[in-house]
Design brief:
Length: about 200
């Protein structure tokens, strides 16, 4: 019955750790990116609504994002817990998630904040950009993305920090080592993994 939220800057390995933690706790990893792609690909009613914004290069509004996440969390596999990746991103989404969980008589158990040295993250993302042929991802562009992330995330961390939910873990180093740090930090809060096999599948 574990309910987690994972937050981390681009290049910190958040996606990889989200998948591994979900496997360790036996709960679904709920990624807003994956949800959007699924709904758009399958042309669901929600997906068609989201696609209308995405095709215009506009952000999907909070109201629709909230609706899509609520639909996902209402599915059977999320009844026993879940791990959120990419949601909430705004204070409005935080409040909506609160309302959603309150209605179910539940709440988040912890917010895992994966931190990483900015210079190291920039170097990591520059290497990835070179491998993928993304010439537009310059050091200045990447640093700006990190600044925007920090500005957007700070209010969320403040809210969840005031509730005593934030667990901050260094995201640099070997993937297995980072996973172990997170699991150890969560275990200190009496949140114990059901499967501590760190060979869980990785994601980018």
């Amino acid at each position: 019955m574990t309910r987690l939220l994972v937050i981390g800057p681009p290049g910190a390995g958040k996606g990889t750790q989200a998948v591994r933690l979900a496997a360790a706790f036996g709960i679904p990893a709920v990624s807003t990116g994956d949800i959007f792609r699924f709904n758009v690909t399958n042309q669901t009613e929600l997906g068609l609504k989201a696609k209308a914004f995405m095709d215009k290069g506009a952000y999907v509004p909070d109201s629709l994002t909230n609706e899509i996440v609520a639909d996902r969390l209402a599915q059977t596999d999320a009844a026993g817990g879940f791990l959120l990746d990419g949601y909430p991103r705004t204070l409005e989404q935080v409040h909506e998630l609160d309302r959603l969980l309150d209605a179910e008589g539940t709440a988040l158990d912890a917010v895992v904040q994966i931190s990483a040295d900015t210079d190291e993250v920039v170097a990591r993302l520059l290497k990835r950009a070179a491998e993928q042929g993304r010439a537009d991802d310059t050091a200045d562009v990447i640093r700006h993305r990190l600044e925007v992330y920090s500005e957007q995330t700070a209010p969320l961390i403040d809210v969840y920090g005031a509730r005593g939910l934030v667990v901050t873990v260094d995201g640099l180093g070997a993937v297995d080592a980072v996973t172990e740090r997170i699991l150890s930090a969560l275990a200190e809060r009496e949140l114990h993994a059901v499967d501590i096999n760190t060979d869980a599948p990785s994601a980018s």
